[in-house]
Model the fold of this input.
Amino acid sequence: MRALSITTLLVMRIATVSIGLAPTSALYQKSPRPARLSETDLLTYLPHDAKLADIPFVQFGPTEETQRTRPNFLYADVDADREQEIIVAYYTPPHDYIISGQAQEEFFRRAHVKVLHWDGQKYVEQWDSGGWGSDFRAGMGPQLDIKEQQLYTDNYFRVTDMNNDGVPEILFTRASFSAEGSQFQAFSWNGRTYKPIALVQNKVKLEDRDKDATKEIVEGYDYKGRKLQSPTVYKWNGKTYRMAKEHPQGRIELSARTLLFLAMLATISIIGLILLYRKKACVPRA
Ligand SMILES: [Ca+2]
Ligand SMILES: [Ca+2]
Done:
């Protein structure tokens, strides 16, 4: 009876202590996550004097089209933890191309992409691409149709599940002066960090050309914006994007040609057989 009373007292004591600790442990509970950050709030997470990127909707077109811009920060769960990250495109200073005084030194901004992860209480930097290139764009031909330009400018800065594995990738195209050219990159979460899964030294569009639900990377124009005779296609091989050995459209054209040839051969054969039959039918019996 005495032992039971001691046990009961101990249980009650533990319960009291637990209740007493409740307000303290509340300090470690998750903070409410802000629904959306303003641009001003977002800048506090970027390096001093950083500037949010300006990403064109198209590069050439009517004034209203060329003035439209794409979002420079996006919300998406890019690390598959069911919590959305903020993916932001920004420039570090100087923000423009300048030539400084007598030394004629050239400075130009660097284009970065950063991922901010919500740790339960605040946003923390999860990844930064590092600065490369002066802009999120690439040389497009002014003669290109706006819809076609848009397919390429889509990938100046974007988050999308291009390899159809259920987790979106971070895509961006950075351009610099002619020495560095343009570069498309795609990064995917590998469980610890974001690793490159695609690298093309040009602007690209994404297209599911072989209808396997995985997007191919298509390089249809050269660095000067001139149309290539035959687009270069990069396919997902389960680990990375590699240049496809055979051009998918080429296969389609080839099989269509083959079908036409077979149809013509069949027609000639049928006509030949009919003529042969008629000739035999006309021969008088001995
Ligand atoms: Ca996440
Ligand atoms: Ca993916």
In short: The two ends are 130 Å apart (CA to CA). The first strand starts at residue 51 and ends at 52. The chain has five helices and 17 strands. The helical segments are 2-25, 39-43, 63-67, 146-153, 248-282.
